[in-house]
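Morning, I've got a small favour to ask if you have a moment. I've dropped the whole record in just underneath, so have a look.
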Amino acid sequence: MPSVTSGSARLSSSSSRGRGNGGSARVPVSGAGSTYGSSKKKVQPKWGRIALVAVIALALCGGLGLGGAWLYAKNIEGDLARTNPFSALTGGRPPKTVNGSQNILLVGSDSRDPDAPTDQGGQWRTDTMIIMHIPSSQDRAYLISLPRDLHVYIPKDAAATDCGTRKAKLNAAYAFGGMPLLVKTVECYTSVRMDHVMLIDFGGFTEVVDAIGGVDMKIEKTITSIHSPKRTFTKGTMHLNGAEALDYARQRKQFPDGDFARMRHQQQLLKALLDKAVSAGILTSPGKLNDFLGAVTSAVTVDQDFGLIDMAIQFRGIRSDDLIFLTNPHKGSQMVGGESVVVSDKEKAVALYEAVGKDAMKQWYETNVSPPPSPSVNN
């Protein structure tokens, strides 16, 4: 069962079991293949990335109503950096099976260079990858976190017509071939067509949090940050400014589930941001909203067809409680080829992404995740 956060509900995925081997969820490939990138030096990211902050801007735009959203979107849309990762994907893509739904690949990079090319490989990797599925009903959004160490098949290049036989950690795809190869790899793994991409660099993330006056975060246990200035985060609720919130969301080594704890805290931070943005009067203050959206858009690169107005319309009825967070089904970390990787739970992943592709996530969620009624206190 994938871990899920919907409001305050959360289910653990640590006990997931299923048939099949790790790797691609839906594309069988014969042969063991090879693990690419093992000889390439891995650049350690300086920032924990949370590739969800753009969702906040979209949700806030939606909260303004169509007229207000249109005005704000027109003002800031011209400031968005653009890329065209789909032009390189010339064959072998999954078909679009349902009109009206949207699948957006949210990617957090560990590059702090705003001019870094998004269509090429480089000496940096992605720290956060999330598939955001907006159903045709447009009443909620499902955000599926993909572990950066997920062991998957990575095609030879973005133009390949098949998914190849080489295997590596998912975040290596960006290092090998930029956003186009990452999109191709995610589509190979899920058999779901991506409609849009959104690349976020969080060099300016502290300004986003500070623009709303910080956030309240529930700290699950007392820890000391491994990064300077070695902040202490005390169990319980803490009010964090931008630098502190980002620092907490980066922590993983102090938790037994490592990167999964970091993904959990990233999801928690997004909900805290949405809740605070609404309660802090951002929607009713043009100045605050401009500052907030300005901080967001300065760190965002989107595809050529991405439109803020269209997204605002889709998000107009969505609030933080309508965001359902999941983690890609997995069997935990295992040693493969001398390195620690996250092994996919193939059977459960197939079922999940079939639901995404068929726009049937509501039924999937109710069957696989939604908790049963609480037992009566009198029993």
Notes: Residues 259-279 form the longest helix (21 residues). The chain has a mean pLDDT of 76.
